[in-house]
Amino acid sequence: MSAPTKLPRWAELGLLPLLNLAAALVLSGLIVRIMGENPWTACKLLVTGALGSQEAIGYTLYYATNFIFTGLAVAVAYQAGLFNIGAEGQAYIGGLGTGLVCLWLGHWPFWAVLPLAVLAGAGAGAGWAFIPAWLQARRGSHIVITTIMFNFIAAALMTYLLVNVLIKPGQQSPETREFAAGATMPAVHELLAKVGIEFAATPFNLSFGLALVAAGLVWLFLWRTRWGYALRVAGENPTAAVYAGISPSRVTIGAMLLSGVLAGGLGLNELMGAQHRLLLDFPSGAGFVGIAVALMGRNHPVGIFGAAVLFGALAQGGSQLSFDLPKLNRDMVVVIQGLVILFCGALENVFRTPLAALWRRKEPGER
Amino acid sequence: METYTLIVLLLAATIRVAAPLLLAALAGMFSERSGIIDLGLEGKMLGAAFAAAAVSAVSGSAWLGLAAGIVTSVALALLIGYACITHRGNQVVAGMAVTIMVAGLGPTLGLAWFGLGGQTPQLDGPGQRFTAIVWPWAKTAREAPFPGLLYAELLSGHNLLVYFAAALVPFSAWVLYRTRFGLRLRAVGENPQAVDTAGISVTALRYQAVIISGVLCGVAGTYLSVAASSGFVRDMTAGKGYLALAALIFGKWRPVPTLGACLLFAFTDALATRLQGVALPGVGVIPVQFILALPYVLTVLLLAGFVGQAKPPKAIGSPYGDK
User: Fold this and answer.
1) Residue among B230, B131, B164, B174 nearest B18 (CA)
2) Per the domain annotation, does A113 fall within a domain?
3) Which residues of B touch A348 (CB under 8 A)?
4) A218-255 burial string, b = 16+ CB within 10 Å, else e?
5) Contact between chains at B304 and A157 (C-beta distance less than 8 A)
């Protein structure tokens, strides 16, 4: 009665997301049309703006790095049947951990700072995720609501810290001083220059590699370990999990901790790789984009990588759009993000139901 | 005497902040009582705020603006309904999607239509805004501090939508607890099977609830852009939709306690504005951020069952019917 007919794997993982994405893009084109610009021109500008030059590609992948981290964070929780809307706050507090290490130990050599910065970011992110996780597991507080509340609490806490405590003395804007050289994530163009390849200077940095490693580890964990198996069973069917001797509350806490660890990775890219200081609202919505990325990527690391690059391209191409088409601005990208979440998440059955009906007709006699 | 005036002004500010919260929270109440999580409050409000300001700027009528705000918000509500009721989509995702989409759509359309960097034109013509209604003799009454000042500041001097919000509390309580519709609404959020067995359409009831939520969010959004300020600016809801959701939970999904929660949250907001940089005797400067975070902390504590207990409608979040 409940779940619609199963689709073949390739349709479930390939065709359906593509159809949903196409619907979102067509609707976005329609909005551009209504605004009095040509959707084709806008589309071309988006693509060249995102992939047309070394600089564009660098920026696209730099944005994508953030989205891989937050997308993985949302996905791990989702696999455990939890909706983590708090990746934004977890990334914010995780970045605080990373930032503090960078401020204190920035004069150390990079190879010594990096592991500590990763640990601090992971620890702080996980710590921030722990409270809603514990409340869900032990007191039954709805994790969607508590993580939303924790986003606001994180924002208030960070504003307080940056305005009153961490601010560099003698300046107006609430930012810390710049990190010392040891806390700077090497940029890809610098690394390439060392082996003699020239690449445009962009904030695209080593954290991209760390994000890929994280994606690989998440895959290994979810599909090749007992804990990952337990997590997915508990997410799919909590009742069955209990009979299999899996404790749903332990899975809840474990999944959310991992989710916070992954969200905490954002600070490596954004703070150590790009900003080189702690500042207000540095996650700038990446936690919410992570929801779109996870939904589109079907909560699988490979899909998340693809979706993150797509959203990175949108973020970078969108700023190009606003230069060339006076009637459009970067907010158009936010509209597209919203539409992708709508079609890939909330409206996914719109296409699945007719597709499933199509398959049933193809294979008569079998249901 | 000085303190007394300060307190009265603080309470008046509380009422002004509470009104849109209350409208949105009651909107959420109808939706959530029917079993549909209303994470779209923020988006519906923001959409209505933009539409109301845009239409009021073009037409010169605040009333047309209100109508546009309501129509926009209801359209967004129907979109959520279509996804969650008809297609059994995830309610949390639907609400988030609409909120994010609208956050981009407002400034985008604003730029395309008005060329003001995503804002709408300033509303300064006569009749373009809902302005304060001064009750008879309010000016004279102000001379007498008690009860004159109370009358002048707390009862008189608000715009029409504030009075509408206030009247809505007893009205929704009546609808919810004293009408056939209210009974069915509460039932469908607790046990949709039972409602279905009684021969009443779950789908129709939930759509009605979602539409009511749309209408009220429309009024709330209009309040922000056409009554409380003069025009739409980017992200002008600034999390008020989520704060309203917190108030709804804090009020345990009931009208009168929700009013109390809205007033409490609005009071912390007004207090934070008032205490900005002021050193209190014996305490020193209280960081504004701590006061502003208080509603969220309180809601988490409540959800955790440390202060009272909040039990959501049983069937909330689960789609109904076979597909």
Assistant:
1) B164
2) yes
3) 89
4) bbebbeeeeebebbbbbbeebeebeeeebebeebbbbb
5) no
A-chain residues near B88 (CB < 8 A): 349
A300 within 8 A of A13, measured Cβ to Cβ: yes
The domain in which residue A83 lies consists of 58-311
Q: Which residue matches tokens 């930032």?
A: A99
CATH number, domain of A191, equals 1.10.3470
ipTM score over 0.90, yes or no:
no
In a domain, A244, yes or no: yes
Q: Which residue of A has its CA nearest to B84?
A: A346
Quick one: CATH architecture of B2-303? Orthogonal Bundle (1.10)
Position of tokens 């000085």?
B2
Q: Does A296 touch chain B (CB under 8 A)?
A: no
- Asked if residue A11 belongs to a domain, the reply is no
Provide the mean pLDDT of chain B. 89
Q: Show the low-confidence residues of chain A (pLDDT under 70).
A: 1-5, 363-367
pLDDT (tens digit per residue) in B119-159: 888 888 888 888 888 888 777 777 777 777 777 788 888 88
CB contact under 8 A, B97 and A1: no
Q: DSSP E strands: which ranges in chain A?
A: none
Position B243 scores a pLDDT of 92
Q: Where are the domains of chain B?
A: 2-303
Report how far residue B78's alpha carbon sits from residue B44's, in angstroms, rounded to the nearest whole number. 11
